[in-house]
UniProtKB/TrEMBL annotation:
Gene3D superfamilies: 3.40.50.2300. It comes from the Bacteria. CDD domains: LuxR_C_like, REC_NarL-like. This is Response regulator. Transmembrane segments: none annotated. The keyword Phosphoprotein applies. The modification 4-aspartylphosphate is found at residue 56. InterPro entries: CheY-like_superfamily, NreC/VraR/RcsB-like_REC, Sig_transdc_resp-reg_C-effctor, Sig_transdc_resp-reg_receiver, Tscrpt_reg_LuxR_C, WalR-like.
Amino acid sequence: MTTIRVLLADDQALLRSAFRVLVDSEPDMEVVGEASDGAQAVRLAKEERADVVLMDIRMPGTDGLAATRMISADPSLAHVRVVILTTFEVDDYVVQSLRAGASGFLGKGSEPEELLSAIRVAAAGEALLSPVATKGLIARFLAQGDSDEDRDPARAERLEALTVREREVLVQVAGGHSNDEIAERLEVSPLTVKTHVNRAMAKLGARDRAQLVVIAYESGLVRPRVE
């Protein structure tokens, strides 16, 4: 069994202690470090070879958003997945964090099982965290500027590198669907879907499925709908 190395980044020591007890209680996880600010989180992610960072957004000094950008921009930390922890799930910083390279977000009020599942999902890099909530959050904020001039033309051009099938799969990923669900919808095998997803990630320079969702919206391939 491969042990998932988890780094806790939160300025509240009590919360870090609670998370540590929860994570260390799992046989496939271990807490390898604790950080009280973003700069320390980036340093410990390198030193402790973390797989997943549970990152609070609001911290003194270097906040979670800046730290997420630093981790995402560092080639030596390409394997690190950042899960944003937020008190308010409807938070503009969450979208900025996803754009900066976070794998997803989770409310601090989530159940323990949800947090543990989020860590495993992020470490595996196979699925978007809280797909329905994340999709809705991205859509809500991107819908505030839904005109063509607000789209990213560079990302729209990069979509031209995708095959027709890869575009179809990307649309389904942006809808928050799992590989199995996409396979059923497109009448192909889950392995074929995974291959298309991996190729799309490579062509678009996305670290994981969360970034694919953001790219799909920002490029205009998928238009957000506000219900």
